[in-house]
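quick one, 246 residues, struct below
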Amino acid sequence: MVETHDIVRPPAELSAALAAVGSATASGELSRMGIRSAFIRGPVSVTPGVRVAGPALTLQFLPKREDLYPVDEYEEPEKQLHRHVMYHAQPGDMIVVDARGDMGSGVFGEMMLTYFKGRGGLGVVVDGCLRDTAEAKQLGLGLWIRGATPNFHVQTDIVPAAVNVPVACGGTLVEPGDIVVADDDGAVVVPVKLAPALVAHAREHAEWEEFSRLRLSEGGDLRRYYPLSDEARPEYERWRAEQDRA
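---
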């Protein structure tokens, strides 16, 4: 019998706050906090307009060796670990897959993703491919992938090897339970211990950007308003006080 570990999930409200922040702001704030690049390179959104954030269930693939792993798609299904990462799914979860950038194997298809959606999953980030992509896009999940293929998951060169272990997705370390923020700009990994500070910094950043955006739309000086200069800060503070009174 195959046994895999579940993850420790952060509070749902923390993930919701990060979803409101978005990937670009999360990446910028993490850089200022010392995480140089938390961006998962390679997978791109194929579900435009979807913005989500949730804890990462992780799946690791390794190179295939036929004497160690069955070739058939349905042979001994309970030994196929891409199913087991799905078994852990809870509402609000993301799945992050280190598929080694392989462009020949479809990690999940419509049926598996339908199950994940039914369990309350939000999205998947795959450093590789999916199959049944036309149908998958209709499920309401967020999908960040390198591409599409008609092949099933073990048809070519890789096999699922571990669930809920640290993985390298798109060259970025993802620990099980890290919060993944994903939207049209891509997917960013937020360490849970840094998430509360990131949210606080991001809210402050968003406030002055709202003010600066307004002034720039009125023809204001870019040097004065973006980034917010010391000379413009008293003006910003007055504007913010007015918003609080409104």
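DSSP finds eight helices and twelve strands in the chain.
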